[in-house]
Amino acid sequence: MYNDEKNLYHYTYRRDGSETKDGPLTDGTFQGQDTGRPPIQEMKPVKKDHTGRKMVALALCCALLGGAVGGGIVWGVSSEDATVNISGRPATAVTLKTVDGETVMSDAELYAANVNSVVSINTTGTSGVNVFGQEVQTASAGSGFILTDNGFIVTNYHVIADADTVKVTLYNGDTYDAQVIGGDEDYDIAVIKIEATGLQPVTIGDSDELNVGDRVLAIGNPLGELTFSMSGGMVSSVNRAINVDGTPFNMIQTDTSINPGNSGGPLFNQYGQYGEVVGIVSAKYSSYANQTVEGLGFAIPINDVIAMIEDIMTNGYVTNKPYLGITGGTMNEQMAAQYRYDVTEGVFVYSVEEGGAADEAGLQMGDVITKVDDTDITTMEDLNAAKKGYSAGDTATFTYIRQGQTMTTQVTWDSVPAEDQQTQQDQQTQQDNSQDGVYVDPYDLFDYFFGGRYNGSSAKEAA
Predict the structure, then answer these.
(1) Residues of CATH 2.30.42.10 domain(s) within the chain?
(2) Overall fold of domain 1-35+92-317
(3) What is the DSSP string of 311-366?
(4) Which end of the chain is more exposed for a tag (fewer CB within 10 A), N or C?
(5) What residues does CATH 2.40.10.120 cover in the chain?
(6) Are 9 and 3 in contact (CB under 8 A)?
(7) Annotated active-site positions, please?
(8) Among 278, 281, 185, 250, which Cα is nearest to 389's?
């Protein structure tokens, strides 16, 4: 779960706790539910005409009020005159009704229909060594949801990243060892699989149909201990651009309660026969600029990633992920002044991969990319965000600066080679600290291009 404590996102988790096995039955009711409980106390009929008692009651009320003003009240009401009304309504049985796809489900109906499709994920791994040279064991918890009845499960990439073991627990308490099929850090998605059949999958919805104000609900495992909890809220914003550890994301913003351990869980709308998954819960703000904030949760729109999820299920990685074939960094005023560039914003091209998309389009080392189609590019983050709008094989018009001249070229996006997937992900975890970071490269391309040592401050990153 991304949890921002110091104006940054961090991963934080809690250990998983125990969980009851009681759950909804096939008829939609819950185990242990008493659907025919008699009333605790019989309701007494109200007597209609006792004028004398009314006068006594009025006098008693006045006396009590006077006592209260005087500083003390002594209650002395006979139990024969006091009646406690206790409801005899039996507990409501949650039944799943067949609807037309447009009827809004109640929160209870949605939970009963989907809790068996949500899973708890617990991972273990190692994180370096301690002062005694011993490996430090780590444990984390997250959520996920069943996509197919034969065991494919969707979660966040950061939930299973660097995990040595992954265990999945269903609502009924069954626990399985899970295999990591693959994932993509840029989109924070991953697919894992358990060896099981006859599972209950979710229904995928259309996140493009979401409106601000629509009600949405999340089911997951907050803190890794409060397993299979549901929280509800509204869509606060759609297509919200946020930055997580240097990676841009397009998100659904919601005030639904989201906490560490909810990561990877489903965000539902209330439509369809069972409710539909419209997002993958991924991040939250807990503080901003030293201020505590509430109600700022984020989920990945399912439409943005469902094709990639299916790609990962089939191939183990995203085969049509766009790739430009450059190493670039954010241009800034210091670089422009030092090397007499007229442009102070954009992506400086440090190197071009031979035979790659950029090379085929004629881009060269030293070019400064300023626009992709109609999207202005001022930083490396802008380029990475723009890249997410394309697939391998798509064509885009790049605007760039070369030796003071503005030029354009048509770039057909390449795909990331399978063997380069992990290398690409490792490279893209570098922060683009273009204002205060210093990147030191023993083979600095500025030596070659400008004939002198570069003392600037732009981190290099593959694109």
Answers:
(1) 322-462
(2) Thrombin, subunit H (2.40.10)
(3) HHHHHSS-TT-EE--EEEEE--HHHHHHTT-S--SSEEEEEE-TTSHHHHHT--TT
(4) C
(5) 1-35+92-317
(6) yes
(7) 158, 188, 263
(8) 250
CA distance 345 to 163: 39
Strand, helix or coil at 115? helix
Return d(Cα 336, Cα 346) in angstroms, integer. Answer: 11
Architecture of domain 322-462: Roll (2.30)
Q: How far apart are CA 462 and CA 353, in angstroms?
A: 10
Q: With DSSP H G I counted as helix, E B as strand and the rest as coil, what are the percentages for the chain, rounded to 5?
A: 20, 30, 50
